[in-house]
Each structure stands twice: as structure tokens, then as C-alpha cells.
Amino acid sequence: MRIYTRTGDGGDTSLFGGGRVRKDHPRVTAYGTVDELNAALGWAVTVVGDGQTADRLRCVQNDLFALGAVLATPQPSEGRAMPKGVPELPTERVAEMETWIDAANDELPALRAFILPGGTPGSAALHVSRTLCRRAERAVVALAATEAVEEGALAYLNRLSDLLFTWARLENHRAVVADVEWRSGSAE
Is 19-74+87-106+114-177 a domain of CATH 3.40.720.10? Predict the structure, then answer.
């Protein structure tokens, strides 16, 4: 099987379940940004210091693959069913992510200032992933303004961003590296 098809050379692409749209369509932007986030998490898995965090990130990567498939599939119209093969969005993971956030927060010192991304390589990778998660969330919001979006997609991305922020702090804390606090007007 060849990896190239040449069908997108004119600037359009196929959606899951049929139909074609321009590559700058909000749906393509949404699932493409989720794919960017997934790639960043793949990098984060290689640099985080905690094995449990890495395992949970791999779990999230699988969720994001499902979310990308859901976003690549227009919602069925009246009388049409969702195409076969579209995975379900694991909306139950939102509650599980909240327990992961709470457990990490129990280990962390109270947050008393804004922090700058950085510290350990794992923390920096999680912060990059967090910002991509927020971009994906904005892309899904933009898509939802014009087309139906799977219920739970926005809650999933919102909670994931919170989780990635918390894990970034946890990476620094466990490595005994202080978070870098934002200082207004600082030239240091």
C-alpha cells in the first residue's frame, strides 16, 4: 500500500464516512490540531520522569485518536446513522482525569502565582502539550459554531488542559525543581 494517494493535491480531503472538504475547513482544523496535540504527547511520554504519568499519557493518546476520528466524521443528519468504525469518545475519562488532577494537587504546594512554562524537560513538554490542547479546544469551539460536534468533546479537552498543567507542575515538584514564577516587569 502506498502512503500517498494524490487525492489531496488540489487542497481538499476526504472525511470519515464520506464527503470531501477543503483542507482549511474548520472540521479539518479541529481534528488536525488534535493530531498535533497527540504528537506532542508522544514526545512528552519520552521525557516525563514518572512512569505512571507516561502510562496515563499513552491512555490519553488513544483517547485523542478516537476524538480525532469523531471530529473527522460529520454528525449524521436526520435518519442517517453514524458510519461503522467510528470509535466512541471516552467521555468517562473526564471524571477519571479529575481524580488524577486531585491526586497530583494533593502532592503539590499551593499555587500562589502565575508560572512560566519550563523547569524540567518533562514539565516543558507537558506545557507545550497544554498549549496545543487549548488550541485544539478553540478549534473545536469554532467548528461547533457552524456544525454539530460530539457532546463531551469540549469537556474532554478542557479537563485535559487542566491535567497537563497540573502534571507539568508535578514533574518539576518531583524533580525538586521550582516552578518559574512570572514576575511583572522582570528583565532577568
Answer: no
